[in-house]
Amino acid sequence: MNSSVYYADLTPWALEKRIKDCPVGYLPLGTLEWHSYHMPIGTDAFEAYDLFGLVAEEIGGVVFPSLFLGPDIT
Fold first, then answer.
1. What digits encode the pLDDT tens for the residues 22-31?
2. Triad 64, 67, 71: Cα angle to 5°
3. Cα distance between residue 44 and residue 35, in whole Å
4. Using CA atoms, how far apart are residues 74 and 63, in angstroms rounded to an integer?
5. What 8-state DSSP symbol labels residue 39?
6. Torsions phi, psi for 30 (to 5 deg)
């Protein structure tokens, strides 16, 4: 059985089981903004995605793909 918590990685059966076990979905949000030259523009959403992955592994639920919010023009 697929033990991933990430929606895009799950088979329909694994998704159904995860939802039945814990009907919670996490939607990582993050702005596209400048964090200087050493970090990617989507850092906030990447961090949210990873954080929700840890939470879902601990208490259950499914992590949906990140939603990137409007660009921050600097």
1. 999 999 999 8
2. 165
3. 9
4. 30
5. S
6. -165, 145
Summary count for the chain: helices (H), strands (E): 2, 4
Q: What pTM was computed for the model?
A: 0.86
- Give the residue carrying structure tokens 């939607």: 27
Q: How far apart are CA 72 and CA 66, in angstroms?
A: 17
CA 49 – CA 36 distance, rounded (Å): 21
Q: Which residues pair with 26 in a beta bridge?
A: 63
For the four alpha carbons of 49, 51, 55 and 57, in that order, the dihedral sign comes to positive
pLDDT in tens, 32-71: 888 899 999 999 999 999 999 999 999 999 999 999 987 6
